Amino acid sequence: MESQQSSPEFLRNLARRQGVDPSDEDLDAVAGFLGAILPELARLEELLEPEDA
Amino acid sequence: MTLAGVVARLRDGELSPREAVEDYLARIEAHEHLNAYITVRGDEALAEAAAPPRPPLYGAPIAVKDVIAIAGTRMTAASTILRDHVPAADADVVVRLRDAGATLLGTLNLHEFAYGALTTSRHFGASRNPWSTERVCGGSSGGSGAAAAAGLAAGTLGTDTGGSIRIPACFCGVTGLRPSTGLVPNGGLFPVAATFDTIGPIARTAEDCALLLDAVALTRTDLAGGVRAVRVGVVDELFARAEPAVAAAAEAAVDELARLGARVGRAEVPLLADAVAIQQLLMLPEATSVHLPWLRTRLSDYGADVRARLLAGLLLPATAYPTGMRLRARYQAGLEAVFARFDLLVAPAMPIVAPPIGDESVVVRGETIPYRLSLIPFNSPWSLAGVPAASVPCGFVDGLPVGLAVVGRRFAEESVLRAAHAYQQVTEWHERRPS
Q1: Could you say which residues of chain B have pLDDT below 50?
Q2: What DSSP assignment string belongs to B355-420?
Q3: Per the confidence metrics, is the pTM higher than 0.95?
Q4: Do A47 and B327 lie within an 8 Å CB cutoff?
Q5: Confidence at residue B8, expressed as pLDDT on a 0 to 100 scale
Q6: Residues B415 and B286 occupy one common structural domain
Q7: Is the minimum CB–CB distance between B245 and chain A shorter than 8 Å?
Q8: Are B311 and B359 in a shared domain?
Q9: Is B144 designated active site?
Q10: ipTM above 0.90, yes or no
Q11: pLDDT of residue A53
Q12: Which residues in A lie closer than 8 A to residue B275 (C-beta atoms)?
């Protein structure tokens, strides 16, 4: 899931759907960024229970 | 000279506002190599200094970070996109500075759009650290740190989203205060992330910071009283993550607070290490929402690092933001519980000294890590909670300044500045100046 969410093709499509057209270099940088933060997001989500909302 | 010293001379008629402006303009010209300013308001400041001096600042020349609007003066945010932007109205804090009798000397360099911690904008060039001009000032308020350290303004304002006041204050050997989020009005500030952004002072001393804070927050800070019986919690987790020599300087500062009568204990902050990620989940989308129109039309006009962060905010899953919101509430509750036991928390302001310009990684306790990742664990815990946090000079390592972070409960700026002031009454780190 995380690797799909940070793959260049996935990211390019997602960006284009929002009207933004990043370069390959940009996507490499973003993939690195997301590669670090998405596992943190997954870990932090596990700290929350539905009733915590 | 300190801001308090300049104000005293102006008040006593030993110095006219015009003479003060002329003195600072001469210093700015002599220190152009520091690249602290983006726009110097020479003629405008001299004209404004012709007005009769008014308390409490009596015409003292103040400079502000170039994301704070001064009517009629370009405000670039150190970016290409806003290179020619000229605000029509003063920011709220500029109105208040004028009301307090300040003279606006100019706008100060920063990391592009205040979204980074280096102040090495490709558009306006790097600000250089007055203690070693081959090193960064930190950021994003790097020009404010350099100007305060080199005496290029009597005092400065910076902004802080995730450390942007405390980092340059620490690296430049001056005193900086991130006020509680919401204390100082943000009208006329170009935002980074609205739920974190706060404007605050960077100047020589805690007393100077109090003068500036009182002007822009309409507070009345009383610095008297010291730290006797004040409960100070040492955040061991952060001391353990700093370079040993930096941690030792901060420990010596804590010992000094204890000698002044503070009751020192050990503090554990729940979710401290998670504060970094929680802040990113919130800050990234908030920043991207501000820039989205330009991401669509002017993407290549951003520096690569800022572009990557803004795109990351665009591409995070939608659940990131509400997850961050829920965890911020939990984190804040945990920190409030810590502040039931302590009046203040202390830690090294930064884990390292200012690195050389161009270095993208640093070594901390033998581990090579990206520069930015080394800093944010020392800043996000306080930004995320929206509490006041100061960086106070507390020593030198390899000839470069290090700082002590002094953190208080929300809206307890007076307690933070009082402790910093008490410390500065018995130490001289803040009096040292770069050659």
Answers
A1: none
A2: PBTT--EEEETTEEEEHHHHHHHHHHHHHHHT--EEEEEEEEETTEEEEEEEEESTT-HHHHHHHH
A3: yes
A4: yes
A5: 98
A6: no
A7: no
A8: no
A9: no
A10: yes
A11: 62
A12: none
Pick the residue from chain B with its C-alpha nearest to A34: B312
For residue B258, what is the enclosing H or E element? helix B244-259
Q: Residue A4: pLDDT band by 50, 70, 90 thresholds?
A: low
Q: Is A12 on the interface with B (CB under 8 A)?
A: no
Q: Which of B79, B127, B141, B164 is catalytic?
A: B164
Enumerate the domain spans of chain A.
2-45
Residue type for position B71: A
B292 in the same domain as B363:
no
Distance CA B145, CA B164 (A): 10
Among partner residues B274, B277, B296, which is closest to A37 by beta-carbon distance? B277
Q: Please indicate, yes or no, whether residues B307 and B359 belong to a single structural domain of this protein.
A: no
Looking at the structure, tell me whether residues B290 and B412 fall in a common domain. no
Q: Are residues B215 and B293 in the same domain?
A: no
Q: How far apart are CA B394 and CA B379, in angstroms?
A: 17
Residue B127 known to be catalytic:
no
DSSP character for B66?
T
pLDDT at B435: 87
Residues B289, B193, single domain; the answer is no
Range of the domain at B286: 276-315
Nearest to B264 by CA among B406, B102, B430, B92: B406
List, as ranges, residues 16-45 from A with C-beta within 8 Å of B: 18-22, 25-27, 29-30, 32-34, 37-38, 40-41, 43-45
Query: Residue A22 is nearest to which of B277, B278, B299, comparing CB atoms?
Result: B299
CA distances to B63, B193, B267, B384 from B273, rounded to whole Å, are: 35, 21, 14, 12
Cα–Cα distance between B47 and B103 in angstroms, integer?
A: 10
